[in-house]
Amino acid sequence: MGDIVEFWRSLGWYANKKLSVFGAYFETGKSLVVTVLKARRGTYQKPFLHVGMVLLATVAVVSTPIIVNQYPTSASSGQVAGAVSPSAVLNAATDISEVNTETVESLKPRRDVVNYEVRGGDTLSSIAKQFSNEKLGIVIDVDSIANLNNFSLSKVLKPGDVIKIPPVKGIIVKVSSGETIYSLAKKYGLPSPQPIIDWPYNTFANDETFALAAGQTLVIPGGKPPEEAPVAPRVIATTPPVGGGGTGQFRWPTNGIITQYFSWYHPGDDIANAVGTSVVAADSGRVISVAYDNHDYGYHVIINHGNGYSTLYGHLSRIDVSEGQNVGRGQQIGLMGSTGRSTGSHLHFEVRQGANRINPLSVLK
User: Fold this and answer.
1) 232 within 8 A of 346, measured Cβ to Cβ
2) pLDDT digit string, tens, across residues 310-359
3) Is residue 56 included in any domain, yes or no?
4) Which domain holds residue 120?
5) Which one of 82, 169, 237, 273 has the lowest number of neighbouring Cβ atoms within 10 Å?
């Protein structure tokens, strides 16, 4: 009897040890997958999901005949009435006789330069408009096209000419030895290198320091001789009565210079100023999140305004509110900083309407 008890005790200890080792490996693997999926603002999430769906579909196709052979139906025909055989599904899926093969030009965000053959009646302006999509925040301008193709704005385009179209308004360069995101930002008229690291398809030799490799291609969104940068209206922090519901009137959350505008890959406005500049609530509401994210917003606050809108304040150096707290319009919620995925002191400000991020300039007063 004692041997049986000892056997079960030893078996339990062995199973517990193996489960602990398995759990440790599982957590390590899970952390690695999460890190990869969050890298570069989630650039790898779509490929990961696509590969996963392909693998699932492959397993389904391979396993279906095996299951059918292992569990044949009792019907004399070998099929349940109304059922469709795997071969019929395959034939239907591969029948392309009625598929519409007409090419449709995609206006989805692009990562690469594309070639375009000029047609009769085309101008630089009409081509730029054709490749832009305001709803997605995709803007292509004539200066960017002319710069990429190394010709002047006065060039006369002829039908049959092939020109290159950039994926975004800005400059595309080959990095020379010794160049950095900081030197390139200064060279091409950006107030900070933040737009360079925010472009989701730019890669870096080191994702922590944003180091560049000589010879690599780099997209510099907005890169060109800059006009005088617009200045956000001066904001003074106030202490109004605290309330849980928004007024629907959004004010500027801080003082500073707008260094990057809303776009499909940058869902907010960046307002730059010194570390420690006051950041206030754009409208009254309830704080629903106070968190830190090293891969993106750093220290950030999200406020629900109770009227379908919420706002996010990112890269803070200090947070002065807590989750669940009611705040008033204009009440200080923290100080500007450069935490998270940031190259300099600024506030990343987002306005969300339901699940959608909208252009803050459309609601700021």
Assistant:
1) no
2) 999 999 999 999 999 999 999 999 999 999 999 899 999 999 999 899 99
3) no
4) 114-165
5) 82
